[in-house]
Amino acid sequence: MISVGEIIYRINEHPLLKSVRKSDIVRHIKTVVELVGAPALLTEKLIQLELKDYRVKLPEDFHSRISVRAVIENQKIVLQHNTDDFKKFNKELAIDENINYGDTVFTHHIVNNSYLYADFKEGTVELAYKAYEEDENGWPMLPKNESLVLAIEYYVRSRHFGILADMYPAKYAQAHARAEQQYTWYVRQATSSLLTLDPVEAEALGNRLVRMIPLKDEFFSNHKYSGQPERVNRRIW
Q: Closest by alpha carbon to 131, among 82, 58, 200?
C-alpha cells in the first residue's frame, strides 16, 4: 500500500511542481483513481457515537455500514436498517416524551448524507463499519501499483505543464508533450493491471479524497491565497 500523502510528497519533490497546491494534487488523484478504477483498501472498525437530535455525523473514513446498536442502560439493542425515509421522519414527529412507547422507539436507523439517524433523540450508538485504510496522518491508502503512481504523477505534470505551455510555449511545450505521452502509457498499464472497480465505488473513493480539503477556502486560481498556508482535514489519532 502507498498513502496519498507519500504520492503528494513525491510530486512536490520535482523542482517545477513545488508550487502545485495539495488540494489540486488531491483532485488530480481523484480523477485518475476514478478513471483507472483503483480498488478501495478497507478495514473494519467499531466505535461509539453520541446521538443528538436524532442524528450523528459519520466518521470521515466511513465507507459502508456493517451494523448499528443502541447502548441503553448498559444494554446493547440492535437497530434494524430502515429503508423508508417517511417512516423515520413520521416516527420522529410522533414521539411524545409523556408516552411510553416501549422498545419500539429503539428499533431503526438509517444512513443518509454522511449522517446516521436513529428513532430516539439522544443517546449512545455503537457503529460497526467498513473504513478506508489510512496512514498515521489520516491520508487514505491506495494499492502500491507503480503504474498507478506514475499515472498520477504524469497526470499532474501534464495539467501543470499544459498551463505553462499555453503561457510560454517555447519553454514548456516539449515538457507538456512528454508528460502527456507518459501519462497515456502508464494509465493504460494501471488500468490493465488493477482489478476493475465498480464506478460507484470509484466515485466514493474519489470523494473521500476531496473531503480532506476544506473546499470553502479553495479556488481554481493558482494565485488566490498563494501566500497562505494550506489546511488539510486529517484525523489525528
A: 58
